[in-house]
Amino acid sequence: MVKKALNFIIISMFFIVFLYPFLYIVNIAISSSHAITNNEVYLIPKGINFIAFKVVLQSKSILSGYINSIAYTKVSNGVFHNYNVFKWWYHTKFSIDEVFRIN
Fold this sequence. Notes:
The protein has helices spanning 2-30, 33-37, 51-58, 60-100. It is mostly helical. The longest helix is centred in the last third of the chain and has 41 residues, at 60-100. The termini are far apart.
């Protein structure tokens, strides 16, 4: 029983430590600028508005940055994947020759 209680306490602490910053950022994003500058935002957003989202989504640089991040991810994953396949093929080629004694 003590082990379950200790496990619950530890998991609850991790939940609070990792969840609070996420909730804080979301609350800051949807709160009014007046409430943010006066440090009135903690767990519940104050003066809810979505002006920040409107400004960000109207910016053309956001779309190009998003497209660039997708392109960089695709290219880097393709390069590393091809490198790992080549490395695997290069190392197994010689071991297969030795196992089957192919000349």
